[in-house]
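Long-time lurker. I teach an intro course on protein structure, and each term I like to show students one example going from raw sequence to a predicted 3D structure in token notation. This year I'd like something fresh instead of my usual example. Would anyone be willing to generate the tokens for the chain below so I can use it in lecture? Attribution to the forum is fine with me.
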Amino acid sequence: MSGVRRVDPAEVARYLLDKGVSPAMTAAILVNIEAESSFNPAAIGDGGTSGGLFQHHKGRWTSLKRFAERRGTDWTDWRTQVSFALIEARNMGIDLQMDDPVEATRVWVYRFERPKDMAGAAARRTARLSAYMPAVERLAGTRKLGVFSGGDGSIFVDARSFPDPSPLGGGGGGDLFADGGSSLATVNIPLGGETIAVGSDVYVVYGVGVGDAGARIFYRVDSGEPPTPPSRTMSESEWAATVAEQGWVDGGSTAAFTGVPAGSNWSELIEPFLYEIGLAGTDALADPGVARVVAMKIARPDMSEAELSNRLRNTDWWKSLTDRQRVWNDLSPAEQQQQILDQASVLAGLWFTYLGEDLDLTRFDTDGDGNVTAEELKAGNPDLYSWAEALASGRKTQRQIVSEVLKPKARENPNSPYSRTVRDELRQQRQFDVDVDNTAAEIRRLYRRWGVDLTDISARTLAERVQMNELSMADVEESLKDQAQGLYPAKPR
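-- Reply from a regular --
Happy to contribute to a lecture. Here you go:
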């Protein structure tokens, strides 16, 4: 392996473009290679279990080696690795013609690389796009993606157009500190799951949905402490069989819980997500198929609304709507009226879930006999009657009513449970942005004091890593001292 050199990013870019990959996806792949291996096709990481430009892990690395054997090349050949990666990506359904470099980077992180901290990795890698995109565009001879374009209009591209792929923290194995340094990431694994020991690995399994009918999503514990000791032990074959037979969803590693407040409960963590996709409090969560789709969406935050809707349409819950429509047509008028009242009661519960208001149906009892008829409901609240009829007849799902009616109404009331949940999420994000801005300003002052240039993008990237506890300010300053020593050898550290 000693004869393997680090590949020139310009060579990789040309190869990808020649293979028909769009400029946006080419830049996305380049920033991911930079982060994973610093363009070293012989890089070994994750304790010797991952290798190559993309840090193919375990079984995928073995498959890469077999692919290389069939081609008559060594697995460290970078063209072999890139060709194999493109085949994998197509098999995963990744669109290699994407024209949004930011979205392309997120897709490659979440669906292809799947690093420990996917959200953090996506943020850091998209921040590096501006270092690659202008050169890729010039290499492709196109200016279509002007967001990241340079201003000189040149077409000739050589290696100097591409950045030095050696950011602070380095690549070379997929881990932030693969050389033995310590990551300061704080991971708090939420309560409410089951801890299972599988060989030398430990997993935490969480439920999604209602009771035993719900789905399961699991996370491999490679950072953080499980909230409870293992409740049972499985062999690797037993674990694999359980995951396959019961359709458990792989959520990745517990690094996904970086920054989660200590003592958090799983159900509380996913509640804002359920509100956002319009399933909180609905009957859909009692369907195992729907619960599994929700678990997949949790594991794959990049899943589009279109894909989510298509997957939901393939569930028994959705298909039951067609059955409900057929049944509805066979009901007598009296039975239909009762179904409408039943669905009105369901909607009253959802109304309280999203708006926090008690929608008491007995207020519509105009004749005082203690019973509310469908006609009384229609006269007292025609909108509620119409929504209930749409549900009863199968013309609408609860999720559609939530998305089309309840969420818009809930947004009108700043004190509704839905508005408060969304506001809390936004407040946390805004505070994170403020903290990043303040830290970036501190980092820029530190760099100026040491006489080292730093772009605003690089300052923010470092600040985000500090705020996500992946670096400390001491780490930043130590690296800065090394850079300053190279620029000013006579200057004391």
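Some talking points for your students: Residues 404 and 443 are 46 Å apart (CA to CA). Strands lie at 44-45, 50-51, 56-57, 194-198, 201-208, 215-220, 232-234, 249-253.
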